[in-house]
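Cross-posting from the modeling subforum.

Setting up a comparison between two proteins and wanted a second pair of eyes on the formatting. Protein 1 (sequence, then structure tokens):
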Amino acid sequence: MRTVCGKPLVSAYSFVKYLCAILAKQGKVIVDLSAITYNIFCFKEKVSEKDLYLFDDIEFRTGIDNSVASSDISEGLNSLQTFGIIGKLNPTYEKIVIYLTPEEANTILESCDQRIVTVLNELAQVF
């Protein structure tokens, strides 16, 4: 039985921050913004039940045209941009740039459970 009330083990912000750190470590520092939410949604559908807790704080909405949206992921990305971890490329903001060095990415991931790193490494392969 899933807990309805309570703090999630991994917040949406932390999820996005950890994912950006892993992408930076893999040298994937320019990412298509429109693909982020869709890739996370598709990955969630394939992840094992024991790892679903990673998505407890992320809500997805699907549209008639099979588009996927998540205000939780969008807010996480906006927060990362505010803190200077990512930036959006002009003029249409279709891509984000991750400004983390591998050392900074390692510092972020030190506070992260190894199981989360393993699962998000699998997700990062999609990008």
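Protein 2 (same layout):
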Amino acid sequence: MKIKKIILIVIGCICLGCGCVGIVLPILPTVPFFLVTLFCFARSSQKLHDWFVSRKMYKKHLESFVQRKGMLMKTKLTIIISVTALMGVGFFMMSRVPVGRIILSIVWICHIIYFLFIVKTLKTEDALRTDKEAAGKSA
């Protein structure tokens, strides 16, 4: 069991690093890496799990997704715009690398499909009501 915990901690730390890089470089998907981090830390170390869920990066990028299974439209648009801008720069710079442009295009299309059609869009009032319910349960 100790080896399993060590492996999960290592995988969690690697995914945490990749998720943090994904915050700066939207080519890497932050949310899936943070979900794997959350899973690995929850299965291996209560201290690491508690530390991770108390961080601003978790609350900003993952908390609403984990608790409410969706994101506000504002959050989705922020992600889509930043991904599009960064990938647009990469696409422009790869004018002599058609394979790179194809790969970037496929990744961009997958991002758009994922955030527009797979991730549920929360209404602001739903998010506020859920936050109040969660605060009432923890009190």
